[in-house]
Amino acid sequence: MNVILKYTLIAIAALAAPLLFPEYQIQLAWLWLMVVFALTWDAVGGQMGYNSFGNVFYFGLGMYVTAVVQRDLYYDFEEYETLAGSLDTLPPADYLTGMSLGLAASAVCAVLCAIVLGSGILRLRGHYFAICTLGLGIAAGEIAAGIDYIGAGSGLVTPVFPDGLGEKGLFFCYLLLALAAVTFLVLRWLYTSRFGLAINAIRDDEDKAEAMGLHTTRYKTIAWCVSGFFLAIAGGIMGDLIGFIDPVDTAFAGATFGVWMVLMAILGGKGTLWGPVIGATIFHVTQEIFWTFLFGWQRVALGALIVIIVVFFPQGVMGFARARWPDRFGHRVESVADKGATQ
User: Taking a C-beta distance cutoff of 8 angstroms, is the pair 100, 275 a contact?
Assistant: First the structure.
């Protein structure tokens, strides 16, 4: 199938789904968030081979920065702390302005943090890097729980979604869909450029890449910046969708979001473009089924799913498909004759 036609059909289906199934708009919004989670983690963990457990740091950072910008633009801090839930809703124009400025500030803060942290943390390798990033997410949650300006351990209520913008579920579903689509297309472009070759070289053999003159730390930091950029925007959007930010259970939820990022990329096939998308879709649908039909046992079932993914699908869905049907899903290499025929 032609690539443009394939993408067009997928876009039509994604746009039509929340209109055809309005009762599932919130679940669809979460699905697009999961796609962003998997894609951004795979940029570092799959394409570059650095297994990070701290990407959730940028997600939580985006949540708080966006909410604080929205709050401080239009409300008094003391009044908001006291009457957050009963304050008048903002006009739609003010809400959108505050949200847009908050998301922009979140993205900038995430990139700056990735540059500062990446220049040091990304010099570590293997399990040292993984443990360090795990500590980053945990530390961020504990620090946020001690800062009164952002609600401390009691959490932070985000501005109420105004009625003038239509249905809340539909609004955020399309907003997260747009973010997932942009993330996918930007990463697709990056992976086909010199940048993609560089991070793949780092994954395959970083020492040889350095010996050949590749500035590995620079490319690793850029990859983390790209990941943090999109995760921060996703965090800002989800803060407004949920309506409340808890420092440990929502913003810096390493035990859930941080682990899910890794699992979804592995399930779909890390180091591929479509693998994280497929893995996120399968994981989210399966999780929703568990939550609906196995209430009380859903975490047990989810734990069993994690074990099955790691044991039986180490190469993921895309890895299985490439091994089973190499002609259709394998890597394609053009011959010299083919190139001459197309010129």
Answer: no
